[in-house]
Each structure stands twice: as C-alpha cells, then as structure tokens.
Amino acid sequence: MVQAWYMDESQEDQRAPHRQQPNRAVSLEQLRRLGVLDADNYETDPCLKEIRRAENYSWMDIVTIHKDKLPNYEEKIKTFYEEHLHLDDEIRYILDGSGYFDVRDKDDKWIRISMEKGDMITLPAGIYHRFTLDENNYVKAMRLFVGEPVWTAYNRPADDFPARKQYMKFLADEAQ
C-alpha cells in the first residue's frame, strides 16, 4: 500500500525518508485530489485492467534502476531527481524493490510517496515531480504508455505547456 508524507527541508541524502517531525502523513484521498492515482497490486487489482482499457495504454516496458543494471547509473539518478513534468501521464508499477516519487501539492510543498513491490502510481500530465531510489538502491518497475513511449522531461519552470495549464485548471476545479 502506498504511503505518503510531507517532506522536511533537509538537503541531505535524497534517498532518506525526509519525514517532517512530527510526521505529516498524506492520505490517498489527498493524493487523488492532486490527480495522483494508486492501486494496491498490479497483478490482482481490477483497477489496472480498467485503467489500461480506459486510457488506452498500449505499450509497456520494464526498467531496473540499480548500479549494476542501468547504464550511466549516477547520471540517470541525478536526472530522475530533477524537478520536471511530462506532457503525458506517467504510470508505474513497482515489480520489485522500492523508491520515492515526490510531487508538489497545490501550495507547492513536496509530498514524498513511498513505493514498493506491488504498488502502482499514475502521475497526471503536467504535475511537477521527481523520482529517487530509497536507501535500498534498487527498483524494478513496469512503465506504460499510450502508443510509442515519449521520454521527454521538461525541467521546471515549464508552466507554458498546455499539459501544465490543464493540470493547474484541474487543481483549481478540485479546490471548488
């Protein structure tokens, strides 16, 4: 089950949990209001089948992030941790290992989402986010796309893209 919390302001090791003290947990409902969707288990959750059908996710691959498995590992880890957005939804199923997705809330505060084997997450197009491994330094994930995959990340600031404007409208509508 996905867990999330507001992050502290520490600039220390990005792979640490960075929980505020006292901890400020973020509920799944709060994540949903940001457009972040989850499912308990990609193998048995009927949500996965419905999401793939409804969103027309037709392409998938598997990525392993570990120093022995990913070419240019250190460079990739730094790139994944740069705050960015995509013009399409980003959907990930954790097949093994663990890591963190960080997303911005409506007030531009970081929320850390802990992901481990069996967890699924969908980040909407236009949401600022980043990814890092946790202290286990290993994750294997399934990535899904509509049509051919597009890997382009647009580092912040990227507020002029239609996907970002649409996401901001979504947040405004959710606030009403």
From TrEMBL:
It catalyses: 1,2-dihydroxy-5-(methylsulfanyl)pent-1-en-3-one + O2 = 4-methylsulfanyl-2-oxobutanoate + formate + 2 H(+). It is a peripheral membrane protein. Its EC number is 1.13.11.54. One of its GO terms (molecular function) is metal ion binding. Residues 1-22 are annotated as: Disordered. It comes from the Eukaryota. Pfam families: ARD. The keyword Amino-acid biosynthesis applies. The keyword Zinc does not apply. GO terms for biological process: L-methionine salvage from methylthioadenosine. Keywords: Amino-acid biosynthesis, Cytoplasm, Dioxygenase, Iron, Metal-binding, Methionine biosynthesis, Nickel, Nucleus, Oxidoreductase. GO terms for cellular component: nucleus; plasma membrane. CDD domains: cupin_ARD. It is an enzyme of class 1 (oxidoreductase). Its cofactor is Fe(2+); Ni(2+). It is found in: Cell membrane; Nucleus. HAMAP family: Salvage_MtnD_euk. This is acireductone dioxygenase (Fe(2+)-requiring). It comes from Pachyramphus minor.
